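1st attempt posting a full record on here, be nice pls
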Amino acid sequence: MLRLWLSFIRHAPSGQNTLTKVVGAMIPYVRRQHILAELEKKELVYLHELCERFPSISEATIRRDLKALEEEGFIEVLRGGAAKLRTFAYEIPLETKERLYTAEKERIARYAASLVEDGEIIYIDSGTTTLRMVKYLLDKPITVVTSNTQVFSSLTAECAFTCLFLGGEVSPMLGSVAGPLTESQLSQLFFDRAFLGGSGYTAKSGINTPDLREANKKRLVAEHSKKTYVLMDSSKANKQTLCKALDFSECTIITDRENEILKAYASFIVAPANLGDDMAANE
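the predicted structure (as tokens):
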């Protein structure tokens, strides 16, 4: 049932009325995923903002959803009717992430793909931004190694690159393969470039992710890559989750906007809106 609801939302006609009607009719779990998606967009969200965003849901229902999310450890409800995501151990479901910051992700992915040269061996990590790279690589004679389960559906008969899928434990929520078997395979592989995803970054935690297996995988890939890039849109700034994956010194971040954390600690590239435009870089 959950998959059917999410599929309907993804393919439903665009527009506020359609979304709010669908959300209002959803089972509590799926409805709460949409509330979490709204909280992902900004640091604080007020009750009245959620009521305006989802007018087909009663205020009492939204309050119950917020209380349930707080009890489950996903959010913190503050005085004054505000709520915010907790700063650890939360991973937004893949279906929700696919709909967030799409223009920024496309810009980052297009630029990242432009860095790949013919004949290279690259790694593509799990994540919705890294996945968007694939369509820009289809005509390149390269080798792609990936733990991103969604890459398979992006391949075409005319694809010029060789694609190697890693084995391991599949996480449908993340669209990823990870675990001991994956790490064993990665320990024998080496890359010219690696393109990783991340859940957030802060000055203290560096590049982070809620999942220990994903953090271990990213570290191992970075150790075996000549050049490591982390693709993260500007919404990931100043977000801390459970596990540190990489230090800023171990990678270059490709993003859509600079900020004080990046300027102070990281090597980064601001992907241009168009590939012919100048880009901001600090390496």
